[in-house]
Write a structure and sequence with these properties.
By secondary structure, the chain is mainly alpha-helical. Helix content is about 50%, strand content about 5%. It is built from 21 helices and 6 strands. It has helices at about 10-15, 30-35, 60-70, 110-125, 150-170, 175-195, 200-215, 225-240, 245, 250-270, 285-290, 290-300, 305-315, 320-350, 385-415, 435-445, 450-465, 465-470, 475-480, 480-495, 500-505, and strands spanning about 1-5, 45-50, 85, 100, 355-360, 380. The strands form 3 sheets. It has a two-stranded antiparallel ribbon with strand order 1-2. It has a two-stranded antiparallel ribbon with strand order 3-4. The longest helix is centred in the middle third of the chain and has 32 residues, at about 320-350. Mean pLDDT is about 75; it is low at about 1-5, about 45-50, about 60-110, about 420-445 and about 530-533.
Length: about 525
């Protein structure tokens, strides 16, 4: 006779969500897979006894519990829903389990972990290597299973995102259509929640905004593009009125940076700073101050005020002396920020001593490319996707900053009645192998960036797409290209001589390559408004 704790001894998370727990110590398989904090209650709450006999000599109490649990809570899966093999967030654990989206139109907490497992398997890279310490653009996912108090809107939004990911990945239009219905239901619930003076479950509401804004990027419909802007504004508003204790909680510290980067993207696009109010980090810890992703956000958040100030000076009627002084001060702000961005890149190199990325012959075919040739003959392959994301944000920020410095310098030269600044003496880097050292070499050579310098950065962005669209990088790799692609496209569109590169950017989602998923459609920032950079 063998005694094992009964189901009352499940870990706290499995017990809260009323799901099966395998009782492994120190952490059960589900919590380990989702990187959750697994805690067990007092083990003396009860026992279950199982008789072993000659017919069943190897029976275990866990077998009995698993059988009874599955009989009581068996979920029938529609034939058109694809079973998904769940891979852990960090690729550390070999355990896999077949799960599928529950068919209930209003999923409850019972299904949340299943939904999250399905989403993680499609969204995150299948493998992870060494990366920069601290957070990454996808760290917010880690806390979704730790939101203790949830609501129906949160669960429906998670199912909508999971459905559209499955539909896009498996080319199932019916599932994508179903995700639109779920999205509409979740959006109505979110509007109802934020209409109240006080949020009932603020953490779940924050998570819902992030989930729905991520859904917008994969909605595949330009009609929905304004929805992303609405979520950016809604997230900014909630952070302004949110109780500081929520933002400084462990869950809040994971969710708020994602809300913040959404607001930063929209501020770059609109050239307005209204969304940046309240997006500063609440009482950052020492670890957060040294976090490279946080630090890059702190630098990026300085760009929209420069854009807005320059636009204001352009349309404001003031005397020439005052205008020259204001433009000179603005150019100095750009120069200071430029130095800080270069220092950030150097810090990244110090934290990750390995080669951050390398170049290889491009294999992806773009419809613009002529047979036997490539617009960008080389493609960059990175150490990890998280490092690729950091570099794409870094290069995009430099492009916007450099173009702004050019505009300010031109306007300043006009006020002085001097010829506009010519090209700098910097030579355009050829399409050859680059490293982070190359970035520093040509970027530090002059305080005034030339068009060739900007074109070199735009080329780096485009050369990164082949890596990001690899199927092993999940849909997060595809999503990582949305903002940088917009930045590169806007630059190429402003320079007629780069018409071929512009067409190349327009045809990215029609590219083909073995092991890549260029067919997974994501929204384009150009469809979200008529702003320029």
């Amino acid at each position: 006779m063998v005694g094992l704790p009964n189901r009352a001894a499940r870990c706290g998370i499995c017990q809260r969500h009323k799901i099966k727990c395998d009782l492994l110590r120190p952490a059960c398989s589900r919590c380990k897979r989702l990187n959750l904090s697994c805690e067990y209650p007092d083990l003396q709450r009860g026992q279950i006894f199982v008789n072993r006999n000659l017919k069943n000599p190897g029976v275990k109490a866990l077998d009995i519990l698993s059988t009874k649990t599955s009989e009581k809570k068996k979920v029938k899966t529609p034939e058109n829903i694809y079973p998904i093999s769940v891979v852990t967030i960090f690729g550390e654990y070999p355990e896999k389990q077949n799960v599928s989206i529950p068919p209930s139109p209003d999923p409850g907490t019972l299904n949340r972990i299943q939904l999250l497992s399905t989403f993680i398997d499609l969204y995150l890279p299948k493998t992870q290597g060494p990366a920069a310490p601290g957070q990454s653009p996808a760290t917010w996912i880690n806390c979704l299973g730790n939101i203790a108090t949830s609501n129906n809107t949160f669960d429906i939004s998670l199912k909508a995102l999971c459905s559209t990911q499955l539909g896009l990945w498996h080319r199932d239009s019916a599932l994508v259509k179903e995700s639109h219905r779920l999205y509409g239901s979740a959006l109505r619930g979110l509007r109802e929640e934020i209409s109240h003076r006080k949020l009932d479950v603020p953490k779940a509401t924050l998570a819902t905004i992030i989930i729905l804004s991520t859904y917008e990027l994969f909605s595949g419909s330009s009609e929905r593009s304004q929805g992303w802007v609405s979520h950016a504004r809604g997230g900014s508003h909630i952070l302004r009125v949110l109780d500081p204790s929520i933002a400084s909680s462990p869950v809040g510290r994971l969710l708020c940076p994602r809300i913040r980067i959404i607001g930063i993207f929209e501020s770059f696009r609109s050239r307005k700073t209204a969304l940046l109010t309240g997006l500063q980090l609440q009482s950052p810890t020492e670890a957060e101050r040294s976090d490279l992703y946080y630090h890059l956000q702190d630098l990026m958040v300085q760009v929209p005020p420069i854009l807005e100030t320059f636009d204001t000076l352009t349309i404001t009627t003031i005397n020439q002396a005052t205008l020259r002084t204001a433009l000179a001060q603005l150019l100095q702000r750009c120069t200071t920020l430029h130095v800080q961005l270069l220092a950030w890149c150097e810090a990244l190199r110090e934290h990750v001593p390995s080669q951050l990325y390398s170049s290889h012959p491009a294999i992806a075919h773009n419809p613009v490319d002529e047979p036997g040739s490539h617009t960008f003959p080389l493609a960059f392959y990175f150490l990890t996707l998280s490092i690729a994301q950091l570099f794409l944000l870094y290069w995009s920020s430099l492009i916007v900053l450099y173009r702004t410095m050019q505009d300010i310098s031109l306007r300043l030269a006009q006020t002085l009645q001097f010829p506009s600044p010519g090209k700098s003496s910097l030579s355009s880097p050829s399409d050859q192998e680059h490293s982070c050292d190359d970035d520093l070499d040509f970027e530090l050579s002059s305080s005034f960036p030339s068009t060739n310098n900007i074109a070199a950065l735009a080329r780096k962005i485009c050369q990164s797409f082949e890596y990001c669209y690899q199927s092993t990088n999940g849909t997060l790799g595809v999503q990582s290209t949305v903002f940088p692609r917009w930045v590169a496209t806007e630059f190429y569109a402003s320079r007629p001589k780069y018409h071929r590169e512009l067409k190349w950017c327009d045809e990215v989602q029609n590219m083909t390559a073995e092991g890549a998923r260029f067919d997974v459609r994501v929204a384009r920032f150009g469809e979200m408004g008529d702003y320029r950079i």
